[in-house]
Predict the structure.
Amino acid sequence: MSGSAGKVFAVTLGILTAIGGFVDIGDLVTNAVVGSRFGLSLAWVVVVGVGGIAVFAHMSGKVTAISGRATFEVIRERLGPRAALANLVGSMAMTLLTLTAEIGGVALALQLLSGVVPVLVVLPVALVLWMALWRVTFSWLENVAGLLGLLLLVFVVALLSLGPDWSALAGQVVQDGPDTGESGLTYAYYAVALFGAAMTPYEVFFFSSGAAEERWTSQDLWRSRLNVLVGFPLGGLLSLAIAGCAAVVLLPQGISVTSLSQVVAPVGVALGTAGVVVVAVGVLAATAGAALETALSCGYSVAQFAGWPWGKRVRPARAPQFHLVVLGAIVIGSLVLLTGVDPVMVTEFSVVFSAVALPLTYFPVLVVANDPDYVGEHTNGAVLNGVALAYLVIILAAALAAVPLMVLTRMGA
Amino acid sequence: MPDMPAHPEQDGRLIDANLHLLDRAVLDRDGWPVLAVADVEIEVPEGGGRPVVASLLLGSGLATRFFGIHRPRRSRYGVAWSRVTRLGSGISLSASRDELGVLWFERWLRDRVVGRIPGGRHDPR
């Protein structure tokens, strides 16, 4: 690959992980729900989450680029088979839940575009996703999902054209705690959910496995930095625009978001039907991209733990177990959706449990990013370690608080 | 693995079997994964002398750890220590994955299932 083509590739990879990965069904729903109930008073959580995923992905990309080992190979080496297996089961359950939510998101986006109820399109969607993973090279999927996912920037356009009272929005950003009759516990619950939506573990499995498959070396560290420093903040900005749209249109009317049509409603108010079509296609691309990434992440995690061959670039017969796991994950996710469960509900569960599962993978990666056996001279510096340790505290606090808050607030009701 | 202490007897380096062998990813000569190190077989030479690492026993750890299946010794995938070419973040072997003939399940899955689905034997486009 020539230098300039490589650069284009790296930028696209960054945009994909930012749009298809950072803004997925979890971000879309959670940001809109939070915007419609709390305005922008939880915007700080998105900023903290973007920082956290950037630190996590950077460390993980570095470990992979220098040692050649992907996340779950490292986790097994460091934790031993027992603890690593517990870790694998927790992370897999989480990623399966996210995959289910993403497939549901694709179905909901199709419902917006065509009016067909989600339960009817689940199987065709699952089949198309599986065929894409079976037959199409990843660069294709990446370019299509990445470019179409950029349509979600229409949330930014909508927010600007709504002409909101910027000083009022800024006031919400700096206010601490909720108003409008929401309790402090509910505020804390949505803070954890929003954090989980921003820092979803599969993004990191996917990022580092992609790097391993591209055979990154220490020469490629700049790519990791570029993806992390450009891609993730872009995703965070989009998240804020989604929350901002809900805060401007839905909050004053007392409408709290419970469906995807409400998530995109502010775009319709600002830009009309054309806006809704654009945003629905953007949602379709972002959720489909994330569904592909989460399905692959299931295969990556199990195959890396077991030492089976894995990879998207080789023919399926060379990595049969990997493809079996990917197929199994898609089947399980589809079966859950066929019960008629509300995909928005699945999404709300998935972001909270993503906060619960995060320490399982964050902690081992932090340890290995400081181990010269793996990263040679590129061990974390003092500043990065300071930031990474601060995030460890935040991540542990969110993980411990998530389930109690969920029970106490009855999922934010 | 930088800065390892030198082996006391030979001009080598000292490694910790627990830290540097167990559960490391094993790679074939093309860098393709071949399971992980599940156990290390150590032999004491007849007539005395130092124990030596005879072979690495490979396994995914999934069947044994997850389902509690006890694998009989003869069916474990042992790789002679002489085939190890490099110890790094992974353990490299001089053989290719196909030569080692690991995992009947993988062969079965490849030949009977994955290879039979249309497109299973073609590179993605």
Chain A has one domain: 3-408.
